[in-house]
Amino acid sequence: MGAAGHVRDGAVAVVDGRIAAVDGYAAIAARFPGLPVLGDGGGIITPGFVSCHGHFSEGLVTGIGETHTLWEWFVHVVEPIEAHLTREMAFVGTVLKATEMALSGVTTVGDMFCSAPGRSPVTPGIVDALDVVGVRGDVSFGPADVPHDRSIDAIVAEHHALAQAAAASRRTRFRVGLATIPASSDALLAATRSLLAETDRLHVHLHEVREEVTASRTSRGASSIEVAARLGLLDAQTVAAHCVWLSDDDVALLRRHAVAVAHCPVSNMILASGVCQVPRLLRDAVPVGLGVDGAASNDSQNMLETVKAAALLQKVHHQQADVLTAPAVLRMATLGGARALGLDDTVGSLDVGKAADLVLFAEASPSMAFVHDPYQAVVYCAGTRDIAGVWVDGERIVADARILTADLPAILPRARELAVELATRAGLASELAIT
Ligand SMILES: [Zn+2]
């Protein structure tokens, strides 16, 4: 994904957490004789994956509600938990889900935490958790105040608490978030515009389902994208989740405002939302990255599944095998995602000077024992068990498919307790197939 393209018999030299060289192994070994050598000589090194959209707020509600479409799922599964999330739940849920992502090669995660703002901030819990796991974060709080009226002051306070926590973190930065345009009052849209004057980055859902476009046209006389553009919200560096239902005018607006799309194929399929027109967006020079989406609508956080599903969904939808190829999908999962988050000067490719965010796929596994085409091997053959190492800023956080940073034996029992507590308080029992 860097200037060098793919390098056979290659190696990446890492010095002080940055990529110092990308070249053939012999040249690297000669130039950096003192560096320890990792890898077995037959694996594949890729840039760390960037998941540009998800919800750590769903970290404790996985595997519920498969029979719902998006709006039903929101009413029955997600909305009921929003008022019951605590900072500890945010921390524990994020440790679990960020670990799951790291084990599938994710080194940068874009997130939108959706909760009802209460008396004390909840979202700093996700920053604490990302500091523990060690993945890079681009985090936001995603408020809504329609149909449930919520205090704008409390919403702004939650944004500020998250921004403050991120500013003090190891690798996480803050972005302004907004759930959707139809779920926002005019006052919330105005407050969001004001927040963008402080932090010129926005994370928002746009046109995930047809109902959203209909609701926006009914209440405001224009699509959500048109409303957001008119209010100046898209003037910020914007990552928009989904963008499944787009008119030609919508696409033109995305392009004009350089809005990046976070494509989430697995949740789009689970919730039967529709098929994002990825080949068309790429043709029209709209930046596209991939997201695992939240743990309540995927329901895994496995980026390798998302990478493979992104290719398969377009192939079957277009009934055309070459409509989206492995190199194109891998590009969306790395450099495309980095561009979507405005982080492509730091991560997304194996280029000298960028952060050493790397994934090493091992040779010694049944699925990767031989490699004819490295792109197809990663997109179609690899599983998380094949990931021998993940590094962020040169710090190893995964070794041989095990997380090195988070203390899972300590956190798993607490996660079980909190998951039961949250489901009970939110009244989710009726959503379970087994009760
Ligand atoms: Zn989402």
From TrEMBL:
Pfam families: Amidohydro_1. It comes from Frankia alni (strain DSM 45986 / CECT 9034 / ACN14a). Keywords: Hydrolase. It comes from the Bacteria. GO terms for molecular function: hydrolase activity, acting on carbon-nitrogen (but not peptide) bonds. Residues 44-396 form the Amidohydrolase-related domain. This is Amidohydrolase-related domain-containing protein. Gene3D superfamilies: Metal-dependent hydrolases, Urease, subunit C, domain 1. InterPro entries: Amidohydro-rel, Metal-dep_hydrolase_composite, Metal_Hydrolase, MTA/SAH_deaminase.
